[in-house]
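User: I'm preparing a small set of examples for a lab meeting where we compare how different chains pack in three dimensions. I only have the primary sequence for this one, and I'd like the structure in token form so I can line it up with the others. Please keep the answer compact; I'll paste it straight into my notes.
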Amino acid sequence: MEWRKSSRSHAGSNCVEVRQDLAALRDSKRPGGELPITVSALRDLLARVR
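Assistant: Understood. Below is the structure token output for the 50-residue chain.
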């Protein structure tokens, strides 16, 4: 499965990546683990962060 990183992320910075199917998040610096998430929860998270 492919992962996407924010276009605003810079090399060496802390970043959260989202799985291509939008079903999980992970820390770009520690990609071994992932956090399952629903699409609606991801939308809510993004709305709150913006």
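A couple of notes for your slides: The mean pLDDT is 86. The longest strand covers residues 30-36.

User: Perfect, thanks.
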